[in-house]
Amino acid sequence: MSRIARVMRRELHRLPHFPVLWALLGPIPLAAGLLLTGVFHAEVARRLPIGILDFDGTQPARLAARWVDAARTVNIVARVQDLGEAQALLVQRKVYAVLVIPRHFERDLLHGRSPRVTLLYNEQYLTAGNLISADVARAVNAGSGAVAFELRRSGGLTAAAAEAAAEPVRVDSRLLFNPAINYARGVGLVLVVGLVQIVAGLSTVYVVGRELRDSTAGEWLATAGGSPVVAWVGKLAPYLVYDLVLMMVLVGGFSAWFHIPVLGNLGFLALGAVAFSLATKSIGVLLTVWLANLRKALGVGSLFFGTAVAFSGVTFPRIGMSAFAQVWGGFVPLTRFMLLVRDQVMVGAPVRISAAPVLVLAGTALIAGLLALPRMGRVFSDRRLWGQE
Amino acid sequence: MTALARCFRQTLRQIFREKETLILLFGASVLYAFFYPTPYLRQIIRDLPIVVVDRDHTAMSRQLTRWLDASEAGSVTSRVNDLNAAQDSVRAGVAGAVLLIPQDFERHVLRREPAYVEAYADASYFLVYSTALRAINGVVGTLSTGISVRRLEASGLTEKAALQRARPVTFVSWPLFNPLAGYGTFVVPAVFILILQQTLLIGIGALRVAEREKDESGTEPLWAILGGKLGATALIYLGHAVFMFGVVFSLYGFPMRASWLDVVVFLVPYFAAVTLLGLAIAELFDRPESSTVALAAMGLPALFLSGLSFPVEVQAAWVRALAVVLPSTFGIQGFLQLAEMGARFDQTLRPWGALWIQVVVYWSLAWVVLRYRGRSRHLGRLGVAHET
């Protein structure tokens, strides 16, 4: 048997002795991935509960309420009597918004005094708040426009002139790449890939860190026939393959479940996945060999990989971040890989646009690897690096 | 009572003796509290790059472009004639949106015909499309209302009457609790509550492993052992809460609207539930670092189970059923109510009550686990059974 196969075999035989590693590789990401699938199962946020506070109670006021109830994002679940009740429902999150129709709504409407309809919405729950306020604004303005149109029409204008008079300039807006505002695509994907990165990074830290902590690096090197290169390749290669399997199962499974099509180049995406895994592994090795302490490396690794989603720029774009966060996020492999996912999965951009993130990932892997290199040899010989608690 | 005090002191001693548990239970929360909010400190997207395709080349189209450039959210980074080239820059992620002002735009307006502009926004990032559309709708709405008012004024109405006629119904949306729609204000308070849970679970896991190795709990009654641990973690973590929601919040400028008394009363069962859950699951961990490895990946799903980023109303029913297991689900909900939404304490009784139910359930679970553990260790000492 070749030396490299012996190292791999040794690695597989070690696995059953580390129950927590086994859990990290299998059940935990699967469970977390399933949970995220359940979280986003509706894909879009529809029929969110809102309340209505109608001070007028006339026929036109009820019409205005119907404009709003017809909006897809909301569902009127409560009719409240006063602002105190509205506040109570809002702070208890029983409704995300309350539509207030003022007293004398009908009278002011008929007299052309433009009654003011107010939407009080919960912006602490920003996702729901933004979706609701945009949709209700659309509904009320459309309803109001229809009223204006009718007024102008009854004043003797043609349909086109009445439309122009009601709203001289309109915006025809189109949402590119994710027109339905599908959250499984827009947010779910980065979480699942972030999960893969946590597993890929921490498993690397763990399998290398355990050799140091258990002082088994000598035995590891002996299995490799005394070659550090064989030892490292034989150790990490199975996990690299596993990262790709996990990527396929979790990201592929998530995408298949939510029918997320790959609009770009799947082969290039696969190449990016290899670079992503290599970069993550290199950073994991870098942390572990320099800290030479399993617990410290796991702590720093959790900080780096566990917060990566926040710095990746998917939920909060990088152009809005502080300089520190932009620089830090630049080192996070997830940031680059998600650019690739956006380009090749959602946008269908030409491959040349995505070459940059893949090259940066490869560069990250290379630089982290080079920085780790001086220590990667010493872990086999320097006994001071062994056995640290 | 003295047994409880002894156990309380014993737990604190144990935490301070082990460097590992000290770092996990003290250092980690402090580090995360400073580090985690850094992406969100600017709160909103300003000057999002927008490309304008102006095919009209009139005073009105130039005015619209200038207004868009002057808006807080948007910034016109280039003016091109080719729509495809403009859309390519959105595809490449260089620009967030394209505003197309078609030919004869001003002519249509002056001839009182319907006039349109087209907006193409990058919805692969939700904050990009919403920021871009807010900027574009804002300036176009202003232009449109201005035109209406001028026309009505020309027909002899006063400005006020003209304004009212321009829109039969005025729509006003009023954001509550987070009026600037700050992303940091939205996400950081919830994440801090989650960080407290995760570091406490991981820290308790490490502490229990160390305790099992040292085997010191001796002859104290079990209720005192549990009570002593609850007291010690509550003391340390209420300190963290004061640090996070007092010091770090004011440093980074996040709002804190609750009284400290309310916060403490609310968080006591939260920390108790987390500690007891930690004691129960700690038996799964064979080594001090195992809890870090096992729990690092669970933070992400736990945050989304709280319904902050995607509403609970549209999550799958089985996910909602599982979410009640986690203290963070109720901890985040209640804390946001108190500290961000300014709720009275009696309006948070549901999540607070749910946390107390968790305390009872996890107390029983931890009791059973520790009792079993104590007995098997006793037997082990007699040479009857052996484990780990």
As a percent range, the share of strand residues of chain B is: 5-15%
Low-pLDDT segments of chain B: 380-388
State the oligomer: heterodimer
Structural class of chain B: alpha/beta
- In this structure, how is the largest beta sheet of chain B organized? 4 strands, mixed
Helicity of chain A, in percent? 55-70%
Strand content of chain A: 5-15%
Radius of gyration of chain B: 29 Å
Salient structural properties:
heterodimer, A: 389 residues, alpha/beta, abc type-2 transporter like fold, four-stranded mixed beta sheet, 17 helices, 8% strand, B: 388 residues, 2 domains, 15 helices, 64% helix
Write the layout of secondary structure elements.
The complex is a heterodimer of chains A (389) and B (388).
Chain A: H1 3-14, H2 19-25, H3 27-39, E1 48-54, H4 59-69, E2 74-79, H5 83-91, E3 97-101, H6 105-110, E4 116-122, H7 126-154, H8 159-166, E5 169-176, H9 183-213, H10 217-223, H11 228-257, H12 266-291, H13 294-306, H14 308-311, H15 323-331, H16 333-347, H17 351-381
Parallel strand pairs in A: 1-2, 1-3
Antiparallel strand pairs in A: 3-4
Chain B: H1 2-17, H2 19-35, E1 48-54, H3 59-70, E2 74-80, H4 83-91, E3 97-101, H5 105-110, E4 115-122, H6 126-154, H7 159-166, E5 170-176, H8 183-214, H9 222-252, H10 260-281, H11 290-295, H12 299-305, H13 317-323, H14 327-340, H15 349-382
Parallel strand pairs in B: 1-2, 1-3
Antiparallel strand pairs in B: 3-4
Helix pairs in contact in B: 1-2, 1-9, 2-8, 2-9, 6-7, 8-9, 8-10, 8-14, 9-10, 10-14, 10-15, 14-15
